[in-house]
């Protein structure tokens, strides 16, 4: 898993669920993502929406989470092919999302 998740609490939850490589900026994701990777991004962070089309085009599975009240961002991310969901749903489903059997 490759992730752009700056929040330290969110990072610790991801680390508890799976091995992860974290990048410091969304622009760095494209340089380290392989087609079979799972990419996790915090959709609320600047630059993430702009980085999504290249990530999705790489063939990686891209999962994004954001505020449940920010429907515009969630919808914009979903329109790129990102699996966008509210933060609470993402962390509640983290084990299933990162399972090798997940789509």
CATH superfamily: Response regulator
Secondary structure: helix percent? 40-55%
Shape: globular
Report low-confidence residues grouped into runs of 5 or more.
Answer: none
N-to-C CA distance? 14 Å
Work out the count of structural domains: 1
In N-to-C order, the SSE pattern is EHEHEHEHEHH
Q: Could you tell me the strand content as a percent range? A: 15-25%
CATH class: Alpha Beta
Main structural class: alpha/beta
**What is the count of helical runs?**
6
Integer-rounded radius of gyration = 12 Å
Instruction: Return the CATH topology.
Output: Rossmann fold
What is the CATH architecture descriptor?
Answer: 3-Layer(aba) Sandwich
**Largest sheet, if any?**
5 strands, parallel
Rounded average pLDDT: 93
Strand order of the largest sheet: 2-1-3-4-5
Please give the number of β-strands.
5
Structural account:
This protein has 103 residues and is α/β, with parallel strands linked by helices. It contains six helices and five strands. Strands 2-1-3-4-5 form a five-stranded parallel beta sheet. The longest helix is centred in the N-terminal third of the chain and has 10 residues, at 8-17. The two termini are 14 Å apart.
Give structural attributes:
103 residues, alpha/beta, Rossmann fold, 5-stranded parallel sheet, 6 helices, globular
Secondary-structure topology with pairs:
Blueprint (H helix, E strand, L loop, with lengths): L1 E3 L3 H10 L3 E2 L6 H4 L5 E5 L5 H10 L3 E6 L4 H9 L3 E4 H6 L1 H4 L6
């Amino acid at each position: 898993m490759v992730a752009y998740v700056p929040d330290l609490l969110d990072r610790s939850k991801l680390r508890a669920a799976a091995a992860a490589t974290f990048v410091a900026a969304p622009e760095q994701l494209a340089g380290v993502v392989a087609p079979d990777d799972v990419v996790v991004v915090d959709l609320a962070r600047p630059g993430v929406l702009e980085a999504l089309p290249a990530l999705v085009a790489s063939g990686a599975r891209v999962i994004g989470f954001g505020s449940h009240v920010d429907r515009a961002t969630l919808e914009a991310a979903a329109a790129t092919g990102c699996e966008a969901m509210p933060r609470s749903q993402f962390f509640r489903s983290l084990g299933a999302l990162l399972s090798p059997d997940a789509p």
